[in-house]
Amino acid sequence: MIHSKILILEKQSFWYPELQRAFQDEPVQIQSCNSLSQVEDFYQKNRDLKEPAIGILDFEFHPAECLLFLGKYVVNSPISTIITGLSKSSDLEWTLRELGVAQILPKPLSSVQLVESCRHIIQNSTQDSL
């Protein structure tokens, strides 16, 4: 039984296997994609989802398209969004937060940081629904 969903937008499948290993014994469905149209489908199909859902977007992959996507789909979405791929000195942090991004994980990013962020979101979402 699936209790949470995670979708990862990345150019090459790097974080996908890391998250699969980290959540292998947990009821978490992890998907990888390489186009924003797939991310849009995920957000549309899961907008009424009761279980925790997370979208992880590699901002370096498609920066302009990511901004447009965030403005259209993320504001008021029940799906928590994590942005990766920004430098620590990026001027976009507050803009991204205003668009509804739950977490911004600057590079360099470790798998431990990403897994902990996902676990934190899942645990908080699960507690909120009780």
Describe this structure in words.
- This protein is of the alpha/beta class.
- The protein has a single domain, classed as Rossmann fold.
- 42% of the residues lie in helices and 20% in strands.
- The chain has a five-stranded parallel β-sheet, with helices on both faces.
- Strand 4 (80-84), helix 4 (93-98) and strand 5 (103-105) form a beta-alpha-beta unit.
- Helix 2 (36-45) runs parallel beside helix 3 (63-74).
- The longest helix has 18 residues, at 111-128.
- The protein starts with a strand and ends with a helix.
- The mean pLDDT is 90.
Layout of secondary structure:
Blueprint lengths: L3 E6 L5 H8 L5 E6 L2 H10 L7 E6 L4 H12 L5 E5 L8 H6 L4 E3 L5 H18 L2
Parallel strand pairs: 1-2, 1-3, 3-4, 4-5
Percentage of residues assigned to helices: 40-55%
Series of H and E elements: EHEHEHEHEH
Estimate the mean pLDDT confidence: 90
The rough form would be described as globular
CATH class: Alpha Beta
- The CATH superfamily turns out to be Response regulator
The rounded distance between the terminal residues' Cα atoms is 18 Å
Detail the poorly predicted runs.
none
**Cα radius of gyration in angstroms:** 14 Å
Q: Please tell me the total number of domains.
A: 1
Tell me the strand order in the biggest sheet.
Answer: 2-1-3-4-5
Structural class: alpha/beta
**Record field, number of beta strands:** 5
H/I helix tally: 5
* CATH architecture annotation: 3-Layer(aba) Sandwich
CATH topology: Rossmann fold
Biggest sheet, in brief? 5 strands, parallel
| Percent range for β-strand residues | 15-25%
